[in-house]
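Data deposition worksheet. Section B asks for the primary sequence of the deposited chain exactly as it was used as input, without tags or linkers unless they were present during the calculation. Section C holds the resulting structure in token form. Section D is free text for depositor observations; keep each observation to a single sentence. Incomplete worksheets are returned to the depositor.
Section A, Depositor: J.P.
Section B:
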Amino acid sequence: MTADLNPDRRRSEAISSSSSKPDSRSELSVDQNQGPTTVHQRHRETWDGEDQEKPDTEEPGRIRAVPIHQRPDLLVPCADLVNSEWQRSQAARVHSLQKSCSEFPVCLVLLQGERGSERLLGHVRLTRVVSHSSGLFVESVVVSKEERGKGYGRILMEETERYAKRRGFKRLSLTTHDKQHFYAHLGYVLSTPVQSSGAVMALVPMAMLMKISSVPSGEQSCKNKTSAGQLQTQTLTKTPYRDIKGVPIFWMHKDI
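Section C:
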């Protein structure tokens, strides 16, 4: 789910309380508790590389992730959900969500219940990773404040993985300021920076991204050297990486 050069590419870090975090690149607003599980018998058909949601009257309590471009009726409610965590004008947020498409970026919404009367539980945005054709970057993840503490954050991440797998992707990358233990519990490991293809960040050279992250260009391990030449290692409690504001940030990924 860090100040970002692109306001649409933020937030991949988990937030378990209802308090907001500064609008930042890749901040995830999810809860960390165990909770309900999804029902995987989905009545769908495949089209253009995506599963198409089909109305059904069975399993009224089932939870599923659906691309927002398949549900334009949810654009405004979803914009309000994301804006509840990171303020923008509703029009600007809707415009950003309307960019979702099967070719990426893709915005997924986590829904529960029958179509037309379902609850909107969460949102996540996926973008391609530059130079890694099998990778996606996870960002703008948020769970409704009213639904936190019920395990929906975990479900949202699991549904995101399933969607990525169905599309043929093999790795998810993200950043977090302080929820690295949550992601480690979900199977994520410490990693090095990657470049997302999302909007403005697609124009940012990798060398600049590495400089922002305080990592020498070409570094392929989770290590960095201080000005005194001492080796720094990224651990679950300490990171040499910094966001554009100079705030410590953890880079992580998961092979799926």
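Section D:
The first strand starts at residue 44 and ends at 47.
The radius of gyration is 18 Å.
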